[in-house]
């Protein structure tokens, strides 16, 4: 019995000592300083502070708190804390005040965590053992510096909140980020039996943009949530998002509406054209259907609505698909389908158009029965295009294009266009790894301009080469007419020569065109030392220029850079006829520039 009594006395004494130590650490300033000193010795890093006042039981103030270690670098300029330990006996944790100033969080890079096996998410039913009351929580100037990426800054945070049964009661939340502010209040459900009723308002003032502001509400429970939002500035817009079973088998629907508003209302750099938008969408976590209608007063749209509908889906958040998508504008229809794999970095895009017209109401250009297929990735892809084209300035053309490309450029393996009763073929390469460069070859045969321009019947054949590049906004290009032959307006036609352009100027190299007995020759460039030499010998103008008669001969030279151009030469006209104008004969010798005539003009 004595032994048991001795053990009991020793245990009671140790418990009393432990309680006294805890009371000393909690209720006295010396206990607080001793506890901090012990903590500094135990943590794996360097823990320092400039000053400490108060006690753990509150109030407590710490200045210049710093920790540096393998976990990162963390700093706190000032902490003020006060709470009510006595409330614990009533089943409540009451924080009267928590003020943090000058917080800097810079965590060290964390090792990559192994991927967990996918499991069905079950929402937690939060049942707190204590009622929590947070009456005055303030954070001033918090900076989070991630191991990678840009730093994040929190300018101000104020929180007054508490828990009650199945809800978090948010009396006031005031959050300020650089250029962005948010205020919120209401109830948030912490369990399936709780109800959420939260109101919020936000503002944004960002560089080069007008002030923005909006407000909204979140209401419902874990089975159904409704989010409504109203954009208040710089223009009115409305959004409604409904979520069914948001934490289990999510089903959602979205309605967005924007009344007619000038685009530059949202950003001064945008055009002044007005835009009205209605968007409806619905789906789940794996797929979505959408439908949108856009109206604009842009002159090119000619008051025609633009409509879009389709379906998007994904598989495991790595494979994405676009299906049954269609874009409609007046009589134009564009159908879209495609898929993309993030893991393989490859995909496929298919465009089909039964008919495309532009502008939509009074078309000047049309494309019919066309398709485009792009397949591959950035490192290697293929492109196939075919369509029938027509327009006011474009003769009816059946176009086919095939090629392969990569990150450095595109190899045009085949371009074939059937037009004007003949055929045009091209191949070559276009590069974009260092600026833009190209090397192309083009061949045409059996071309009859008269099919589109009745005054110019004929049958033409030509071979053309073009090469060049554009770097640092400087264009260098060469176009060579290797051969031109055939007949035009019943007369033989031939030609050859080249045209070059570079940052120093442009020039022709022995370019000569002949049709019947008529001849045009160009050589050189006005900015070149030798200038641009030209020769005209048209003994039969009517053969080359419908509506004109007579003969024209001349030669001369053009020199200088704009606007200091100077032209010299001589022209002779005989039996000229143009509409009601007739001229038996005229001769002109000239030496003139844009700054006036300084030489003979006879």
UniProtKB/TrEMBL annotation:
Subcellular location: Membrane
Major place of residence: membrane
GO CC aspect terms: plasma membrane; TAM protein secretion complex
Any one biological process term the GO annotation gives: protein secretion
Keywords: Membrane, Transmembrane, Transmembrane helix
Membrane topology: Single-pass membrane protein
Top-level taxon of the source organism: Bacteria
Protein name: Translocation/assembly module TamB
Species, as recorded: Thiohalobacter thiocyanaticus
């Amino acid at each position: 019995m004595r032994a048991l009594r001795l053990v009991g006395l020793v245990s009671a004494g140790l418990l009393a000592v432990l309680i006294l130590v805890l009371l000393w650490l909690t209720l006295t300033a010396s206990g607080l300083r001793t506890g901090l000193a012990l903590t500094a010795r135990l943590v794996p890093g360097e823990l320092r502070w400039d000053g400490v006042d108060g006690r753990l039981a509150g109030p407590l103030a710490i200045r210049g708190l710093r920790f540096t270690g393998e976990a990162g670098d963390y700093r706190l300029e000032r902490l003020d804390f006060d709470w009510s330990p006595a409330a614990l006996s009533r089943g409540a944790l009451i924080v009267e005040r928590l003020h943090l100033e000058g917080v800097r969080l810079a965590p060290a890079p964390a090792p990559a965590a192994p991927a967990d096996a996918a499991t069905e998410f079950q929402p937690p039913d939060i049942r707190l053992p204590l009622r929590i009351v947070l009456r005055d929580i303030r954070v001033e100037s918090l900076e989070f510096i991630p191991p990678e990426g840009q730093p994040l800054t929190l300018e101000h945070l104020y929180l007054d909140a508490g828990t009650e049964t199945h809800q978090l009661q948010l009396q006031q939340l005031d959050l300020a980020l650089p250029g962005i502010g948010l205020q919120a209040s209401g109830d948030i459900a912490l369990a399936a039996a709780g109800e959420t009723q939260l109101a919020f308002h936000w503002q944004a003032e960002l560089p080069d943009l007008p002030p923005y502001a909006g407000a909204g509400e979140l209401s419902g429970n874990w089975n159904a949530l409704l989010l409504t939002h109203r954009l208040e500035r710089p223009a009115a817009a409305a959004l409604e998002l409904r979520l069914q079973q948001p934490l289990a088998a999510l089903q959602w629907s979205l309605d967005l509406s924007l009344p007619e508003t000038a685009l530059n209302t949202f950003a001064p750099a945008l055009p002044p054209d007005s835009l009205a938008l209605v968007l409806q969408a619905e789906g789940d976590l794996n797929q979505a259907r959408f439908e949108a209608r856009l109206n604009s007063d842009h002159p090119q749209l000619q008051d025609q609505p633009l409509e879009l509908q389709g379906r998007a889906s994904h598989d495991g958040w790595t494979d994405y698909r676009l299906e049954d998508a269609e874009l409609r504008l007046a009589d134009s229809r564009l159908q879209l389908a495609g898929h993309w794999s993030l893991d393989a970095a490859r995909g496929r895009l298919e465009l089909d158009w039964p008919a495309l017209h532009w502008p939509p109401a009074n078309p000047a250009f049309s494309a019919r029965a066309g398709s485009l297929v792009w397949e591959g990735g950035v490192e290697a892809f293929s492109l196939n295009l075919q369509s029938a084209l027509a327009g006011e300035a474009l003769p009816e053309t059946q176009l086919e294009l095939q090629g392969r490309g990569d990150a450095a450029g595109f190899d045009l393996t085949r371009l074939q266009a059937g037009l004007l009763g003949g055929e045009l073929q091209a191949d070559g390469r276009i590069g974009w790894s260092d600026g833009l460069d190209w090397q192309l070859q083009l061949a045409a045969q059996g071309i009859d301009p008269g099919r589109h321009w009745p005054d110019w019947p004929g049958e033409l054949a030509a071979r053309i080469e073009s090469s060049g590049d554009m770097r640092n906004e400087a264009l260098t290009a060469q176009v060579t007419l290797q051969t031109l032959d055939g007949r035009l307006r019943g007369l033989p036609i031939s030609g050859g020569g080249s045209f070059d352009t570079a940052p120093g100027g442009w020039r022709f190299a022995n370019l000569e065109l002949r049709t019947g007995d008529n001849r045009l020759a160009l050589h050189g460039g006005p900015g070149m030392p030798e200038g641009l030499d030209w020769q005209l010998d048209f003994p039969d103008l009517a053969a080359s220029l419908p509506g004109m008669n007579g003969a024209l001969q001349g030669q001369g030279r053009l020199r200088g850079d704009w606007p200091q151009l100077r032209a010299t030469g001589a022209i002779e006209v005989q039996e000229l006829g143009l509409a009601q104008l007739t001229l038996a004969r005229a001769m002109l010798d000239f030496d003139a520039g844009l700054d006036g005539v300084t030489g003979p003009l006879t």
